[in-house]
Amino acid sequence: MQIEITDKAKQELIKLDIGQNQFLRIDIVPGGCSGMTYTAALDTELRESDMVLYKDADMRLVADSGSAMFLDGLKIDFSDDLIKSGFRFLSPSAVKSCGCGASFAV
In whole angstroms, what is the distance from residue 88 CA to residue 101 CA? Predict the structure, then answer.
């Protein structure tokens, strides 16, 4: 499983105090106009079905096994655009996404 987190996204995650005790949890849930959407949150508790998909120094990205199958090749970036700033999730397996980029289909 390969996941890329850009330097800009890493800097923003560090500002959120991601580290040894906190990690980034990514889930894929039904929703949006294209069918599936990403949710991301900082978490401190690993669950039985969790997989560590990315680890770099103190930074970890975790997902449950159901979400993990959609995350191979995921690129996480951060944009500080005035109109649409925030984290961006770019998946090579997405065959379509909605106009706002909030949901995708595989």
Answer: 9
Taking Cα atoms as reference points, which of 72, 31, 29, 27 lies closest to residue 50? 27
- Tens of each residue's pLDDT in the chain, 106 residues: 789 999 999 999 989 888 878 999 999 887 776 677 888 899 999 999 999 999 988 799 999 998 898 888 889 999 988 877 888 888 777 665 655 556 556 6
User: What is the pTM assigned to this prediction?
Assistant: 0.81
Q: What is the DSSP string of 27-81?
A: EEEEETTTEEEEEEEEE----TTEEEEEEETTEEEEEEHHHHTT-TT-EEEEE--
What is the CATH T-level fold of the domain 4-101, as seen in this structure?
Answer: Hypothetical Protein Aq_1857; Chain: A; (2.60.300)
